[in-house]
Design brief:
Blueprint: E1 8-14, H1 20-25, E2 30-38, H2 42-50, E3 58-61, H3 67-75, E4 80-84, H4 92-97, E5 100-104, H5 116-123, E6 127-134, E7 144-151, H6 159-185
Parallel strand pairs: 1-2, 1-4, 2-3, 4-5
Antiparallel strand pairs: 5-6, 6-7
Length: 186
């Protein structure tokens, strides 16, 4: 690549439809050029496809075929993987080709792994938060780029509402702000 494009070309890796998808599509300076989704959840893939206005290429991910992800990333000319709610580790060889960031729903290093929401609910913290960190071959262990916290609701045990509200009000703004910093360093 001789010249950096005016927009950061991102590929979103996710297991579910979330407000992260339209946020990436609708943010100036970012270009969502691909989606990576586990192949075994076709209903979720169809829901994601219905909620995208652009024709975004989709890669159906299976860990045993992760080597094919490299070809997909090359074909869409991806510059950065953006991971949210994707319960697979991206292999190091892929990260060497295309670095990535993860939006994790806790203030790392607290509550790493697959169940941060449930663990926080059980711990009854006073604050929750989000961390944007670089992907690494070990789950939630990459360099922390940014964090933001929110007050943990004292009177709500509706975990889905806490998750969805905090994602919209805290997580997505943090992610977008962090991603836009990548566009200024290119």
């Amino acid at each position: 690549m001789c010249e950096a494009p005016s927009e950061l070309r991102c590929v979103l890796c996710t297991n579910r439809l979330s407000p992260v998808l339209p946020a990436l599509v609708n943010t100036a300076g970012l270009s969502l050029v691909g989606l990576v989704h586990p192949a075994q959840t076709l209903d979720s893939i169809n829901a994601i496809r219905q909620h995208t206005t652009a024709k975004i290429p989709l890669f159906e991910y299976l860990p045993e075929h992760s080597h094919k992800l490299a070809d997909f990333l090359h074909d869409v000319n991806a510059q950065l993987l953006v991971v949210h709610g994707f319960q697979h580790i991206i292999p190091q060889a892929i990260l060497e080709q295309c670095p990535g960031v993860n939006l994790h729903p806790s203030l790392l290093p607290a509550y790493p792994g697959l169940n941060p929401w449930q663990e926080q609910l059980q711990a009854n913290p006073t604050t929750g938060g989000y961390t944007v960190h670089m992907l690494s071959p070990k789950a939630d262990a990459g360099t922390i780029l940014a964090q933001a916290e929110f007050p943990w609701p004292r009177h709500s045990v509706n975990l889905l509402q806490i998750r969805d509200d905090s994602l919209r009000n805290c997580g997505i703004p943090l992610l977008i702000k962090t991603l836009l910093k990548f566009t200024t360093t290119k």
